[in-house]
From TrEMBL:
Pfam families: RNase_T (PF00929). GO terms for biological process: DNA metabolic process. GO terms for cellular component: cytosol. The keyword Phosphoprotein does not apply. This is 3'-5' exonuclease. Residues 32-205 form the Exonuclease domain. Keywords: Exonuclease, Hydrolase, Nuclease. It comes from Neptunomonas phycophila. GO terms for molecular function: 3'-5' exonuclease activity; nucleic acid binding.
Length: 209
């Protein structure tokens, strides 16, 4: 039986309310958001492995590039020619990578109970949960912010009756935000962070017809 995420989060909170990670389940009251991205061997969560994790903090309308994660993991056995087409990472690119459990500890410490921002952010959260839950006994309880939803909600009034192109490259172009190191975890996390700040603190973008 599939347990709805809301119910599972409540159960996790009860199970861990006295543990070392109890703070993760407390409501967040600050003004920071963490933009996060994972590069993986596949787009299928059930069989994918994490190759790298990038994250950067946003405080209000400031991007805190000095507070970031740029984690490379040890290359898994599933790193093949077919998977390299997806993420553009080779085994040599992951030289010096760390163990997955060490990476997860860094993610939990860095993110805390802040909202997690991303492009297809639920995929990244599901990938992390896939490995966090067996080790720690819970999944990430953080609020998720989907960049494409933020973009859609802000510009939908400019596209009445028309389709809104929610592709990453298109959003970046419409917001006049350069794509930094595309298909690297940290590069994508920073690009998403810049787009989010532009959407939430800048003037509404023009939409090409």
């Amino acid at each position: 039986m599939i347990i709805p995420r809301t119910i599972r989060k409540l159960k996790d909170k009860m199970d861990h309310k006295q543990g070392p990670y109890a703070h993760l389940f407390e409501p967040y009251k600050g003004d920071e958001v963490v933009s996060l991205d994972c590069e993986t061997t596949s787009l299928d969560v059930s069989g994918a492995e994490i190759l790298s994790i990038g994250a950067v903090k946003i405080r209000g309308k400031k991007l805190l590039t000095s507070e970031r994660l740029d984690i490379k993991l040890k290359p898994p056995k599933t790193l093949t020619g077919d998977s390299i087409v997806v993420h553009k990472l080779r085994a040599t690119d992951l030289e010096g990578g760390i163990e997955l459990e060490d990476a997860l500890q860094q993610v939990l410490a860095f993110v805390g109970n802040r909202p997690i921002l991303g492009y297809y952010v639920n995929y990244d959260i599901r990938m992390l949960d896939k490995f966090i839950r067996p080790i720690y006994g819970f999944g990430l309880p953080n609020k998720a912010i989907e960049l494409s939803h933020v973009y859609h909600d802000i510009i939908k009034w400019r596209s009445v009756g028309g389709n809104i192109d929610l592709r990453f490259d298109t959003i970046s172009k419409q917001l006049d935000i350069p794509m930094l190191e595309r298909h690297t975890a940290l590069g994508d996390a920073i690009t998403v962070a810049l787009m989010y700040v532009r959407l939430t603190h800048g003037s509404p973008p023009e939409v090409a017809c």
